[in-house]
Design goal:
Layout lengths: L2 E7 L3 E8 L4 E8 L6 H14 L6 E8 L2 E2 L4 E3 L9 E2 L1 H6 L5 E6 H12 L8 E6 L3 E7 L2 E2 L36 H10 L18 H9 L3 H25 L3 E5 L7 H13 L10 E4 L7 H16 L6
Parallel strand pairs: 1-4, 4-8, 9-12, 12-13
Antiparallel strand pairs: 1-2, 2-3, 5-6, 6-7, 9-10, 10-11
Helix pairs in contact: 3-8, 4-6, 5-6, 6-7
Length: 318
């Protein structure tokens, strides 16, 4: 049995676990990213866990997904949603402690590979994984190959600008898609959207409301919460319509965060996409909810980056 260590580094939490080549998660844990002062603290924590649980000597590789993770350089490059700043040579830090191969990729690319190997995209050659968490990312498959781009950082779709001079983004620009269509974007909409229904919404009585609160209330017919969900779906759907004109995918797969609300949100996004779609693409592109949207999703995605390398070389998965 081949075992890979999958690590998903997020702005809030970092999840990690051990997975076999069939997609069985053998063990998973998480830690608050902000509790780790330096990236080296993360490396040492995970190494000690691998040793303690007896997996260290069995690993065929370590797959890491991170915001702004560059597969070519092995570094995290100026991730706006991480408290570790600048360029972080993460692969080298792990190689100093682990004897197996180590791969770093953008967290959205990891999710896309996981979807391809273990999820709803198994039979797709062309699809886009849209990750909806603290920010918004995209992992792109074209003709059965993951698109990395010249510099290894393709897929920063959360940073296309949707609203001229709009909301300030963590990247330093204004109006980026992720400032509207992400968990943090939804929370910002609570205070920034104007509505007659706002004053009677239960949202205004909540202390530190979350995106989950918005969707829960929308499902319970809170009119202002419904407006926020519709507003978010409208912006995301419009963005996906524009994306279709570029790469003609079979499907967009929504993963994490907002997509965990299933068809309630996915169908709204699909409707808005088709309203804005160029005629030649009308009703040809699906919007699907990731089948990896459970507690193991991030681990499956990042460990899949290791198995995908073996798959391409026909070493493990046939």
């Amino acid at each position: 049995m081949k075992i890979a260590l999958g690590i998903d580094i997020g702005g809030t939490k970092t999840a990690y676990g051990f997975v076999d080549e069939k997609g069985n998660v053998l063990l998973e844990k998480s830690v608050f990213t902000t509790s780790l002062s330096t990236p080296l603290d993360l490396v040492q924590l995970i190494k000690s866990e691998a040793v303690n649980f007896g997996y260290f000597d069995e690993l065929v590789g370590v797959g890491i997904g991170a915001p702004n993770g560059n597969q070519f350089t092995g570094s995290i490059d100026f991730a706006p949603n991480l408290h570790w700043k600048g360029q972080i040579p993460l692969v080298q830090l792990f190689k100093n402690e682990f004897t197996c191969i180590v791969l770093l990729t953008n967290d959205a690319n990891a999710a896309a590979i996981g979807e391809k190997l273990f999820g709803v995209a198994k039979d797709f050659t062309d699809f886009v994984e849209i990750t909806l968490g603290t920010g918004l990312g995209s992992g792109i498959f074209v003709q059965n190959e993951l698109l990395l781009g010249k510099h290894g950082i393709a897929g920063e779709y959360g940073h296309i600008r949707m609203i001229p001079n709009g909301r300030v983004c963590g990247c330093g620009r204004k109006g980026c898609l992720e400032t509207y269509a992400s968990s943090t974007g939804v929370v910002r909409s609570i205070s920034e959207l104007q509505s007659d229904n706002k004053k009677i919404s239960k949202l205004i009585w909540l202390e530190n409301p979350t995106a989950k609160d918005v969707f829960d209330l929308a499902l319970n017919n809170d009119l202002f919460a419904i407006e926020i969900v519709d507003f978010t779906a409208k912006i995301l759907g419009s963005a996906l319509a524009d994306y279709t004109a570029f790469s003609d995918p079979e499907a967009f797969v929504l993963f994490g965060g907002l997509s965990k609300n299933g068809d309630f949100f996915t169908k709204k996004v699909e409707e808005e996409m088709n309203k804005n779609m160029l005629n030649i693409y009308q009703n040809k592109v699906k919007v699907l909810t990731s089948s990896l949207n459970d507690l193991n999703a991030a681990i499956l995605g990042t460990s899949a980056t290791i198995f995908w390398e073996f798959f391409k070389e026909k070493k493990i998965i046939q």
